[in-house]
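Ticket #4471: complex job returned nothing on first submit. Input attached below:
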Amino acid sequence: MSAGRRHRLAGWLFLSPAILYILFAFALPIVYNVLLSFEQTSPATIADLTAPFAGLANYRFVLNDPTSREAIVHTFEFTAGSLIGQFIIGFALALLFTLRFPGRTLGRTLVIVPWLLPLIVTGVIFKFLFQLEGGAVNQLLMDIGLASHPIDWLDDPNLSLWTILIANIWLGVPFFTLLLYSALQDVPVEVKEAALVDGAGPWQRLRLVIVPIILPVIEVTFLLGFVFTVKVFDLVIALTGGGPANATQLITTWSYNLSFQEFSFGEGAALNNVLLILAMVCAPMYLLLSRGSLRRSAGAA
Amino acid sequence: MTSRLERSRALRWLCTLAMVAALVVLLFPIYAVIVGSFESTETLFSGTYYWLPHGATLDNFRTVIQAQSGNVLTSLIVGVGTAVLALVVAVPAAYALSKYRLRFTVIVVSSLLICQIVPSIVLATSLFIIFHWIHLVNTYPGLIIADGTYAIPFAILVLRAFFFSLPNEVIHAARVDGASEWQTFLLIVVPLARSAVITVAVFAFLNGWGDFIFALTVLNGATIVPITLGIYTYLGNYSTDWGAVMASAAFAMVPAAVMLVIAQRYIASGLTAGSVVG
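Support reply: We reran it on our side without changes. The output follows.
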C-alpha cells in the first residue's frame, strides 16, 4: 500500500465513528420521522417499526387542528419576541462591558452562569418566582406599589405567553451578551478613534461605525438565537406545560403531547416536520455565514 | 482637570452600578433557589415571599437526599457517558477533518452544521420508536446516544477550529520519527489539544447532566431516573413540594458551578468558537 493511500485510509478511519453516529442519530431519525408522518399510527403500532399508510391524513390533521395552528402561531410570536428582547438587552450589556470600570471581569464571568444551568431547573425556578401567592415577582410588584393585587402570571391565558417569553429572554441574554461582546472586542480601536475625531456622537458612532462592522456576528447571533428558540421545550413544560387552555402551547410541546401523551406518533411526526422545515429555513444562511470554515481546506499534514 | 477626573471616576462607578443591577436580575433566580432550599414548608407556603433567608432548616435536603441520591448518581453516569462518547467520536473526526485531505470534507462539515439546527423533539419522537425496536428504550446506552446529539456536532466543530491552529510541522516531525498515524494522533496531537478537549468534555457532560427531553421520552420507566426527571416529578398540577424542588434544583446546579470554577477560562472561548464558525 502506498503512503498516500495509507494516509487517506487513516483519515477515513478517524472519521468513521462520526459518520456512523451522524447516520444513526440524525439521518435515520429524520428519515424515519418523515415515514412516520405518512403512517396511521395507534398505541398498538408502537411496538412495530411500520404502520399502515395514511397518505396526507396526518398533515391534514395538523393544518386543521386548532391547537396545532395555535402552537405554530405561538412559536412565531415567542421566537420573535425572544430574539428582540435578547438582542436589546444583550447588546446593551455587551456595550457596557466594553467600557472600563471596576468589576467588569468578574461581571463578565458571572453573566454566563444562567446559561450553564439545566433548562428544567431554570423552568422550575421561574415557576416558583412567578407563583400567584408568595412568588417573588408579585411580591416585588406589590412592595414597590406597581400592583395592588397578585398577578396570575402562569394561569391567566392572556398573560402566560408573556411569562414564558420573559423567562426565555432571561435565559438567552447571556448568549447574546457573550457573542456580541466578543464581536465588539474585535472592532479596531483606530476605527472608534477616527469616528471620535470626526465628531461623531455616541449614538452615531454606534449606528454608523460599530454596527456595520459587527453586522456579520449580529446575523450569526440572530440565526443561532432563532435555532435555539424554535427548539425550546424544557422551559415551557416546567413553567406551564403548554397551558392554561393551550395558551402557551408551542410546536415542540404540542408535538410531545401528540406523540407521548396521546400516542398519535403519526400526527406528532407531521407536526415535527413543520418544525423541521421552519428551523431549516435558516440552514442556507447558516452555511453561507460559515463558508469561511467550510472552505478552509485540510491543512494536509 | 480634577473635576473632569472626578467625573470620569463617577461615570465608572455608574457603569459598575448598571452592571450590578443587571447581574442582580440575572442571578436572582439562583439566589432564590439557594435560599429557598433552606426554608421550611411553612415559610414557602406562607403566601409571602421573603427576600432574605427567613429560617434555616435542613429538612428539604434530608427529603431530597433520601429521594434523589440515586438519581444524582444516574445523572453523573449519563453526564460522564455523554462526555466519553463525545470525545471518542469527535476528537478523531475533528482531526481527520482538519489535517487530512479527504473528499467530502465540505459535505461532512456542512451536515454537522445542519445537525446543530435539528430540534431535539424531532429526534426524540423517532428515536423512541427506533429504540423500542432495538431494545434501547430505558437503557443508559440509549439515553447517552440521544444526549450525544447536543454535544457531538458542536464538539467536532470546536475541535476542528482548534486543530487548524496546530502547526503541521509537529505532525510531520512525529512521522519522520517513525510514529504511526494512530500514535501521532494519540501521543502527539491529543495532548497538544488538551484545553480544547477539556472544553468539549465539560460541555458534553453538562449536556448529559442537564438533558430533560430525551430523559422524558426515551426513558419510560422508573428504573433509570436522572435528577432532571426527578425534579419534574415534584411539580404537581395543584400542589408542588417547593422545599424539595428547591433542594433538588440546588443539587442540579452544582456541576455547573463546579465547571464554572474549573473550566472558567475555557468556557467563554469554547462558546464563541463553536458559535461563530465563520
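The radius of gyration of chain B is 24 Å. Closing as resolved unless it happens again.
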